[in-house]
Amino acid sequence: MPEYLPTAPAKGTRDFLPAEMSVRTQVFGHLYDVLELRGFLRYDGPILEPAEIYERKSGQEIADQQLYTLTTKGGERLALRPEMTPSVARMIAGNAKSLQFPVRWYSHPNCHRYERPQRGRVREHWQINADIFGSDSANCEIEIFELVHDMMSALGATPDMFQVRANDRNLLSSALTDIVGVTTEQLPQVFTLVDRWEKSDRTKLSDTATEIGLTDKQFEKLTEILSSGSALLDELPEQVKENSNLVKVLNSGAADLITFDPMIVRGLAYYTSTVFEVFDTSPENRRALFGGGRYSDLASLFTSQQIPGIGFGMGDVTLIDFLDTHGLTPKPRSEVDVVVIPVTEELTDASREVAGRLRKAGLRTSTPVELRKLGKELTRADKAGARAVVIVGQEDWDAGNVTVRGLATREQQTVALDGVVEAVNSSL
Ligand code: HAM
């Protein structure tokens, strides 16, 4: 017996067969429309980037555990992109002279992270990225939060189905240092601890806090501030709040787009102030749908010019889970609208001519490649989701006619060739 290779894709990666691809095309098509409507322009870039750009800016989790790296024959160390933000920062920095800021760009890359596959997490995922570059204004935050809501609404989601939880890392730093008494050296580790807060059990969190050097009392205080919601804002110094774009949003007419949540800190290292995540309100889906924030100096990897950015990545896995859970997943499209069936091989050219007319009128049309009995062709057309067939018989054809049959209505009519488009349209 020959030993066959597995037909399953590599662990943590997925095949998308046509039915699934059709659902995805519809879903992403709605999202591209929303982005284009707001003036976001689509870009793309290479899947391979120098490993260093992630090692220097994305943070330890990505650099140490999740990066797929390779060394080329020429000795370059490259990585499969785990995310798009460093790539887009590179493109913006490299083309800054010719760009008119603020720049609104979006992309839809596949990203690779070596993670343990589980619900909401795979090793290759697709991410819609949308970012605004070149402005420090809180209006960027508002625009990004509005965009999130527009994208969700374009998919049929209502506000009760999801929550946009936002924070500002500077507000959290202030709370941690001024209220909990965390030292500057401890701050990065405490941020990582906060990022794990909802994913770990309390004993583990408390053990990690002890390892970082926090006392039991400090751990209690930390627990208290993280669950205090917007009440925390009253305890923070005015000066810190004055400089916060997030506080500006919370004091504006756009406040209801978000929920202030001190627990949101995000795992990536480059965020400098605003951070946010979008969650499904259904407990079945615990992983974030979107993650994003503001990064004021990511472009500094590539240029001395200060180019702030703010944006998000929306993942396909959690999005499809969300749509399934809420009954919002669109149906796959059928293969074709119409099948044109010649009764004999001799009528193949005739049926190609009919099919050509139908396609010109925008009807998705196929013809059999290997002719079988009419009954079998009708069953096949039905299974392909066609709503009509056109039967081309010799006698009809000689008289300049064809027969149109509605597959749902089962009504059949013989029409002149010139009337075939109209007859098919009325039988759909
Ligand atoms: P992120 O939070 O790492 O952010 O990823 C964004 C979203 O991508 C997540 O909320 C999740 O939906 C999805 N995602 C991430 N990793 C996986 C995975 N292993 N499997 C399935 N889905 C995943 C970023 O990547 C930032 N670069 C986003 C950004 C753009 N920030 C500013 N601009």
Automatic annotation (TrEMBL):
<dbReference type="Pfam" id="PF13393">
    <property type="entry name" value="tRNA-synt_His"/>
</dbReference>
<comment type="similarity">
    <text>Belongs to the class-II aminoacyl-tRNA synthetase family.</text>
</comment>
<feature type="binding site">
    <location>
        <position position="266"/>
    </location>
    <ligand>
        <name>L-histidine</name>
    </ligand>
</feature>
<dbReference type="GO" id="GO:0006427">
    <property type="term" value="P:histidyl-tRNA aminoacylation"/>
</dbReference>
<comment type="subunit">
    <text>Homodimer.</text>
</comment>
<dbReference type="Pfam" id="PF03129">
    <property type="entry name" value="HGTP_anticodon"/>
</dbReference>
<keyword id="KW-0067">ATP-binding</keyword>
<dbReference type="GO" id="GO:0004821">
    <property type="term" value="F:histidine-tRNA ligase activity"/>
</dbReference>
<feature type="domain" description="Aminoacyl-transfer RNA synthetases class-II family profile">
    <location>
        <begin position="12"/>
        <end position="330"/>
    </location>
</feature>
<dbReference type="InterPro" id="IPR004154">
    <property type="entry name" value="Anticodon-bd"/>
</dbReference>
<keyword id="KW-0963">Cytoplasm</keyword>
<feature type="binding site">
    <location>
        <position position="113"/>
    </location>
    <ligand>
        <name>L-histidine</name>
    </ligand>
</feature>
<dbReference type="InterPro" id="IPR036621">
    <property type="entry name" value="Anticodon-bd_dom_sf"/>
</dbReference>
<feature type="binding site">
    <location>
        <begin position="83"/>
        <end position="85"/>
    </location>
    <ligand>
        <name>L-histidine</name>
    </ligand>
</feature>
<protein>
    <recommendedName>
        <fullName>Histidine--tRNA ligase</fullName>
        <ecNumber>6.1.1.21</ecNumber>
    </recommendedName>
</protein>
<dbReference type="InterPro" id="IPR033656">
    <property type="entry name" value="HisRS_anticodon"/>
</dbReference>
<dbReference type="InterPro" id="IPR006195">
    <property type="entry name" value="aa-tRNA-synth_II"/>
</dbReference>
<dbReference type="InterPro" id="IPR041715">
    <property type="entry name" value="HisRS-like_core"/>
</dbReference>
<dbReference type="InterPro" id="IPR015807">
    <property type="entry name" value="His-tRNA-ligase"/>
</dbReference>
<dbReference type="InterPro" id="IPR004516">
    <property type="entry name" value="HisRS/HisZ"/>
</dbReference>
<keyword id="KW-0547">Nucleotide-binding</keyword>
<dbReference type="InterPro" id="IPR045864">
    <property type="entry name" value="aa-tRNA-synth_II/BPL/LPL"/>
</dbReference>
<dbReference type="GO" id="GO:0005737">
    <property type="term" value="C:cytoplasm"/>
</dbReference>
<keyword id="KW-0030">Aminoacyl-tRNA synthetase</keyword>
<feature type="binding site">
    <location>
        <position position="127"/>
    </location>
    <ligand>
        <name>L-histidine</name>
    </ligand>
</feature>
<keyword id="KW-0648">Protein biosynthesis</keyword>
<dbReference type="GO" id="GO:0005524">
    <property type="term" value="F:ATP binding"/>
</dbReference>
<feature type="binding site">
    <location>
        <begin position="270"/>
        <end position="271"/>
    </location>
    <ligand>
        <name>L-histidine</name>
    </ligand>
</feature>
<feature type="binding site">
    <location>
        <position position="131"/>
    </location>
    <ligand>
        <name>L-histidine</name>
    </ligand>
</feature>
<keyword id="KW-0436">Ligase</keyword>
